[in-house]
């Protein structure tokens, strides 16, 4: 195969506003996707949620080529209002869209977490079956500070940011997934990943339990995730399972994960030709915390076929071969 898929992805449930006595809260996601194959292109996605007003701001951009400086000891992407840069434990991220902008600097006191399925030989490398292979690392609690501007009003912000870095020879369009990043108030960070093929068959179930630099790999038998509520997008007609119960018995965790807002679909049909649910979550149950959830690869449910009784002598109509194409 001759392809390279890579992305860097910053997510955070709450950024606290330093200048506000009432402690406003915001969450954001900022991602860049680089695809190199027959053609090379780069995509930027970003969203910002104001938890006070529940208003969701979004922005996206796409460009041909690779707008990075090609460094081997980190990464640096810059295109218009978008910038993502990482040099070891020091990162910066900038994005801007209609009525909002965000400019952050981040630092990490711990080494990156290398995600690994149990009984696999290489830490940080995941097997996606027929879809390919991917390296996957995270920095779950980067200290962040910077400036958030909404409707022309800048304010200083600080918080903790979850950073993901994934790259390899794989085809994301062949996959569907449920992904959870949870930051518990006792200092535990949990990543859980359920990966499926487009027919719904299981490809990989794994996770990571991390605390203070100590990392435990979780296999599919070590945790359970069960949906208990859904939301349907009026725009795409896709139904997403957005309310979950998560248990990790060996760690004494029985959690309820719920979205901060339900309507958090990211419509990327103009840049990556898909839609996905991406947003901040609240964690309750045996432990409390915050987190982020990504649900990708879901499609609208097919309308049930009408069971119409044919009159005597009526012949069935041939189906239009183009009618059922996605």
Task: Considering the chains and any ligands shown, give keywords for the structure.
62% strand; mainly beta; 326 residues; 12-stranded antiparallel β-sheet; AttH-like fold; 10-stranded antiparallel β-sheet
Structure, described:
- There is one protein chain.
- By secondary structure, the chain is mostly beta strands.
- It has a single domain (4-296), classed as AttH-like fold (Beta Barrel), CATH 2.40.370.10.
- Helices cover 0% and strands 62% of the residues.
- It contains no helices and 22 strands.
- The strands form two sheets. Strands 1, 2, 3, 4, 5, 6, 7, 8, 9, 10, 11 and 12 form a twelve-stranded antiparallel beta sheet that branches. Strands 13, 14, 15, 16, 17, 18, 19, 20, 21 and 22 form a ten-stranded antiparallel beta sheet that branches.
- A hairpin with a 4-residue loop joins strand 14 (189-197) and strand 15.
- The protein is globular and about 50 Å long.
- The two termini are 26 Å apart.
């Amino acid at each position: 195969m001759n392809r390279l898929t890579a992305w860097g992805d910053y997510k955070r449930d709450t950024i606290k506003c330093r200048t506000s006595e009432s402690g406003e809260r915001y969450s954001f996601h900022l991602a860049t996707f680089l695809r190199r194959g027959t053609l090379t292109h780069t995509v930027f996605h970003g969203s910002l949620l104001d938890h006070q007003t529940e208003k969701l701001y979004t922005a996206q951009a796409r460009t041909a080529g690779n707008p990075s400086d090609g460094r081997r000891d980190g990464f640096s992407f810059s295109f218009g209002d978008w910038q993502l840069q990482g040099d070891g434990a020091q990162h910066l991220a900038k994005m801007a869209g209609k009525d909002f902008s965000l400019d952050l600097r981040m630092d990490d006191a711990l080494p990156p977490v290398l995600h690994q399925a149990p009984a696999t030989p290489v830490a940080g490398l995941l097997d996606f079956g027929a879809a390919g292979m991917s390296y996957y690392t995270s920095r779950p609690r980067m200290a962040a500070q910077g400036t958030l501007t909404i409707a022309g009003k800048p304010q200083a912000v600080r918080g903790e940011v979850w950073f993901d870095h994934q790259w390899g020879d794989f085809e994301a369009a062949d996959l569907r997934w449920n992904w959870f990043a949870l930051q518990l108030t006792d200092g535990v960070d949990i990543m859980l990943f359920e990966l499926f093929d487009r027919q719904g068959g299981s490809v990989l179930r794994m996770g990571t339990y991390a605390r203070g630099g100590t990392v435990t790999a979780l296999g599919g038998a070590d945790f359970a995730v069960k949906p208990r509520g859904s939301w349907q997008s009026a725009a795409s007609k896709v139904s997403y399972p957005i309310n979950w119960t998560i248990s990790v018995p060996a760690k004494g965790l029985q959690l309820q994960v719920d979205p901060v807002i339900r309507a958090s679909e990211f419509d990327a049909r103009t840049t990556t030709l898909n839609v996905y649910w991406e947003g901040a979550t609240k964690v309750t149950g045996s432990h409390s915390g915050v987190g982020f959830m990504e649900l990708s690869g879901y499609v609208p449910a097919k309308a049930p076929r009408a069971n119409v009784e044919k009159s005597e002598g009526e012949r069935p109509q041939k189906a239009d071969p183009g009618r059922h194409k996605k």
